[in-house]
Design a protein that fits this description.
The complex is a heterodimer of chains A (about 400) and B (about 80). Chain A has about 400 residues and is α/β, with parallel strands linked by helices. Chain A has eleven helices and 15 strands. Classes of the chains: A alpha/beta (about 400), B mainly alpha (about 80).
Chain lengths: ~400, ~80
């Protein structure tokens, strides 16, 4: 995968390996904290430091200072942070609607950007972020961490090598069973929107931008293409608590070769959990569970087949009447593992990559493109759901 | 506790019976490899199943021998 060349150790232009990479973190909520801790864990090995932190929410601002032992400069306003002269990159982990202006401002301050997915709240902002990255020649790394997961990388290698035959369908789901709410201090109800921003339409597209964006990227990656159209449906059918975003969605993305990507998400039942399945005429890969299922599973050893046959002859009943149709239930076959290297932390790997891209002074163009297409199509899926129409890529958004 | 003494001849006889059982199990494995058109590497890779099968065969022979002993028991002279 092109974006992994960074791990080969080649260093083009940019900072020399002996120079310390200095990062700023904008937004130190749950995700921002996780990213900060990841950077701290690679600080010594990769010679990187969290030089600045920023959050306009006081508890997060204070937590950021504690996490950096007071060594990082702390800001309430990201624009002041961007004025720091020796900042190489920023990590943006704020609510979705703030991504675009922060990213563009960082680019204009000559700073590389790692921005959490999805890219932005509107397709115009997605485009603006992407174009500004190209104009300013700054790195735009979107936090779609599965691109750095050994399971996904080896799985994609198998898919692209043709181990599954022709890919005929991708399906993905992400099911949870919780209200997706975070507690708001009782004495400060005005913070509701700031804390539960994922539930409000002007800030987030809900399940689409916060969960499905990962899976849209995976489908595009597997099919080495982007959709040509999307249709979908969604509603609030369970969590009727004043939220503005859907609590269940289902979409079908169509690709130029006729392949469909079926994607759904809900937060009222967690039985199915999360999965991405890539189906071909020779087999299927389930990426979240690191499994590959051949359509022609390998036979068990001959000696076991003998035992099975004897057992079958003894215990199997002979039908003498009844239904002439047997239900085509799922194949009972446990499959094989895609890789044994599944214990590596993909979020940490992507932070390592970001630091190395900064040191190289550039990132593979495919990295930003993957983020662009995933972000764009989850917003187009939202349009499809809201309009009830099949939505295609608007003119001017091709890259 | 009383010491248990097993005669050398008894030990040899049981060992021979088990070796025969093992050879039989290997023979079964060869047969099924041919019948199911399986790779010959299964002669080695499935040796654990062959070993278990040999013990099962040995146990079946043990039961048959036990039954024979019980049948013959009333006709034995006391002495």
């Amino acid at each position: 995968m092109p974006w992994l060349n960074v791990f080969n150790g080649s260093s083009a232009s940019g900072k020399s390996p002996s120079d310390r990479v200095r990062l700023g973190i904008i937004g130190v909520g749950d995700r921002g904290t996780a990213l900060l801790l990841n950077i701290k864990s690679i600080a010594e090995i990769l010679n990187v430091e969290v030089a600045a932190v920023c959050d306009d929410y006081v508890p997060h601002y204070q937590r950021a200072i504690e996490l950096t032992e007071g060594k990082a400069k702390a800001f309430y306003d990201y624009r002041q942070m961007l004025e720091m002269k020796d900042l190489d990159g920023v990590v943006i982990a704020t609510p979705l609607h703030e991504h675009a202006r922060m990213t563009v401002d960082a680019f204009r301050s000559n700073i590389h950007v790692f921005c959490e997915k999805a890219m932005a709240r509107t397709i115009k902002d997605v485009r603006r972020m992407y174009e500004t990255s190209l104009q300013t020649k700054r790195i735009l790394h979107i936090g779609l961490q599965r691109m750095f997961s050994p399971v996904y990388l080896e799985g994609m290698e198998k898919i692209h090598r043709g181990d599954l035959g022709q890919i005929t369908q991708v399906r993905a789901y992400w099911h949870r069973n919780n209200n997706w709410r975070r507690p708001v201090p009782a004495d400060k109800p005005e913070l509701e929107k700031k804390i539960n921003w994922r539930l409000y339409d002007d800030i987030s597209a809900g399940l689409l931008t916060e969960l499905s964006s990962h899976q849209i990227q995976i489908a595009n990656w597997a099919l080495q293409s982007q959709p040509v159209s999307v249709m979908g449906s969604g509603s609030i059918n369970f969590w009727k608590d004043g939220r503005e975003v859907y609590d269940n969605i289902a979409c079908i993305f169509s690709y130029a070769d006729g392949t469909q990507f079926l994607c759904d998400s809900l937060i009222s039942n967690r039985h199915h959990g999360i999965e991405e399945k890539v189906l071909g005429n020779n087999g299927m890969i389930t990426l979240e569970t690191n499994k590959m299922y051949s359509e022609k599973p390998p036979s068990p050893p001959a000696i076991l087949r003998l035992i099975n046959d004897i057992e079958k002859d003894i215990f199997e009943t002979i039908p003498i009447g009844g239904a002439s149709w047997i239900p085509e239930t799922a194949v009972q076959y446990t499959g094989e593992f895609i890789t044994s290297r599944y214990r590596m932390d993909e979020t940490k790997l992507q932070m390592e990559a970001f630091v190395k891209y900064i040191r190289q002074g550039e990132a593979p163009k495919e990295l930003a493109e993957q983020g662009y297409h995933a972000s764009l199509w989850c917003l187009l899926a939202e349009n499809a759901i809201k309009s009830g129409k099949v939505v295609t890529l608007p003119k001017g958004y091709e890259i | 506790m009383k010491d248990l003494h097993i005669k050398k001849s008894v030990l040899q006889r049981e060992l021979i019976i088990w070796i025969v059982s093992l050879l039989f199990a290997v023979g079964v494995n060869v047969y099924v490899i041919i019948v199911y058109n399986a790779p010959w590497t299964e002669l080695v890779t499935q040796i654990h199943y062959v070993f278990v099968l040999s013990l099962v065969v040995y146990f079946i022979i043990f039961l048959i021998r036990g039954a024979g002993y019980l049948v013959r028991l009333p006709f034995r002279r006391k002495g």
